[in-house]
Amino acid sequence: MKQVAVRRLLAVVYAFERFEGGERRLVSQEEIPASQLFMFEQQLEAVPKRTLVAYGSGLLIYDDYQDARYAATTVARLASYVAIREVATGTGAEGWTTEDGARYVPVPDGLSEVVKE
């Protein structure tokens, strides 16, 4: 019988901090000032591209844990919240959509690691 390798997908999920009315709010990169966005885009140039499967606002999908971990550490320099979640394509209430419209949802009992909070 032929063995089929199952690809493990890991999402680096991130958000930025903004204060409104004295309260802390986590927001997407579309809601941060242009100067902060420019610096963040420079940081994104340093993330691994070899195993990057997909990306979207606040989201980088990898199929290699070490690359996902390195990307999370890089993103954490400017983002206020960063986590690594094991994901699969699918539909569901909780999940993320990539630039190309693919939907990724957390794997039940899968890896869930907060890198920065």
Structure description:
With 117 residues, the protein is α+β, with helices and mostly antiparallel strands. It contains 2 helices and 8 strands. It has helices at residues 34-44, 65-75, and strands spanning 9-20, 23-27, 52-56, 59-62, 81-89, 96-97, 103-106, 112-116. Strands 1, 2, 3, 4, 5, 6, 7 and 8 form an 8-stranded antiparallel sheet that branches. The longest helix is centred in the middle third of the chain and has 11 residues, at 34-44. It is globular, with a radius of gyration of 15 Å. The model has no long low-confidence stretch (mean pLDDT 90).
Distance between the termini: 45 Å
Order of helices and strands: EEHEEHEEEE
* Radius of gyration from the alpha-carbon trace, in angstroms: 15 Å
Shape: globular
Structural class, judged by helices and strands?
Answer: alpha+beta
Give the % helix: 10-25%
Please give the largest β-sheet. Answer: 8 strands, antiparallel
- What is the number of helices? 2
What's the average pLDDT? 90
What percentage of the residues does DSSP assign to strands (E)?
Answer: 35-45%
Q: How would you describe the oligomerization state of the chains in this entry?
A: single chain
Count the E strands.
8
Runs in which pLDDT lies below 50 for 5 or more consecutive residues are none
List the defining traits of the structure above.
single chain; 117 residues; alpha+beta; eight-stranded antiparallel beta sheet; 2 helices; 8 strands; 19% helix
Any chance you could write out the topology, listing elements then pairs?
Blueprint: E1 9-20, E2 23-27, H1 34-44, E3 52-56, E4 59-62, H2 65-75, E5 81-89, E6 96-97, E7 103-106, E8 112-116
Antiparallel strand pairs: 1-2, 1-4, 1-5, 3-4, 5-7, 5-8, 6-7
